[in-house]
Design goal:
This protein is mainly alpha-helical and 352 residues long. 60% of the residues lie in helices and 6% in strands. It has eight helices and six strands, in the order H-H-H-H-H-E-E-H-E-H-E-H-E-E. It is rod-shaped. The protein starts with 5 loop residues before the first helix and ends in a 10-residue tail after the last strand.
Length: 352
Amino acid sequence: MRSPRPVALIAAISVFTSLWVAGASDRSSASQTPSPNSVEALRKQADQASAELAKATKTWENRSKQLKSSEEKLKKTLADLGVADEQLDQIREPLARLAASTYKDPAALGIPALIGGKDPDQDLAAASDLTMLSNDQKTLIDKANQLRKQHEQLAATAQDLQSRNAIEQARLQQEVSGLKSRAAALTAQLTAALKKLDPNTRLRLTCDKSLVSEARKFPNGLIPARYLCKLPQPGRSLRADAALAFYNLNAAYKRRFGVQMCLTDSYRPLAEQQRIYADRPGMAAVPGHSNHGYGTAVDLCGGVQSQGSAQFNWLRANSRKYEWFHPSWAYSSPFEPWHWEYTKENTQAGSD
């Protein structure tokens, strides 16, 4: 089962915050709430921002891999350069001896050594020695030239790799610093903006409706908290679709009565349902069958619990506009004017 999408959520809040702060000077009231349409527009922009953020993250990861590969190549090149230096050191002494010998007696290895000899056998031996010495000399010099060229190539490659790696490392560091600065700025803006939002709007931005399908996979009363959405009332939560509908109902109620709705219960864990069933036999749903356990029912207070009150009458007249209703059984069997349910999931014959 998948977890909520933190990256998309952060992007959504960040985009919302930026737009909210940018337009703050155009608002007459700091507590003014965005309309549902503006929230939807912000969500679309947040999706785009999330995609761009994912793309940028992938690019940064690829650059890091390339830099690591380049660093490995540099290490190998430097190792090869060390080997070439050692080989050059090994032939420096023979080369020095050859140079010193030639300097002292230029004719010692030359043709004059073969001219004017009185003994043909000695002349032949001298010629043989000269050929061998000449071949060894050529091999030594060729090897020296080869190692010198290799050393120059490796040194040039190492210098190029070091230069390019330093530039790329600086670029990556600059990007990271930029992201950190931007994150710090957005965090400050977010903190200020969230204080201006009413609870419904703030929670709406963090309630992901796609979590509904995941929540349905769990048994009644055993839905993990991460698959539920918090309500404005502390400690209360519902399944995402029911919560989103409740935010609208709560906002309308607040416009009418000046306060948020009062809740005594919402999503109910199985253990709590078992306790209530034991305390109220025949008055509560059998554990595992309560709509509270599905996260689609609430118990209200603040006047709603009294049938005929202004709050109860307003809810009975308006709740269906916001996808909530008072089931018929709650008027008599048992009498529970405080119990209200989410219409798109529950029926009149549902259970408490």
